[in-house]
Design a protein that fits this description.
Elements lengths: L2 E6 H4 L7 H14 L2 H9 L2 E9 L2 E9 L5 E7 H6 L4 E3 L7
Length: 98
């Protein structure tokens, strides 16, 4: 199964140091694996889970979802973009989500 990772423009502008993106996969996995719903999603390979992270003054949300046809997608956006459904995503292969 291949994973597709999409990052919003708002996330890139959320911090002067985008090095926080390198830490997001492990921080997301830690939240997901410590949550019953997150573990169920991973075990069943279906559904979605959202983790929240504070980076500077920005709230970053990571949405991991499994869909039909063995699709696995990760969306990284600001909390504001998620609530307002305004994220403009770009495919971002540089993040190693597991």
């Amino acid at each position: 199964m291949t994973s597709e990772v999409f990052v919003s423009a708002g996330v890139i502008g959320a911090s002067d140091d985008i090095g926080f993106l390198e830490r997001l996969p492990s921080a997301h996995a830690q939240q997901r694996d410590s949550d019953r719903r997150g573990r169920q999603m991973t075990d069943r390979r279906m559904g979605a889970f959202v983790s929240e992270h504070k980076i500077g003054n920005a709230e970053i949300h990571v949405r991991e979802e499994y869909g039909l046809g063995d699709s696995h997608r990760i969306y990284v956006m600001t909390g504001s973009e998620r609530v307002r459904d305004t994220a403009d995503f770009t495919e971002f292969a540089g993040l190693a989500f597991a």
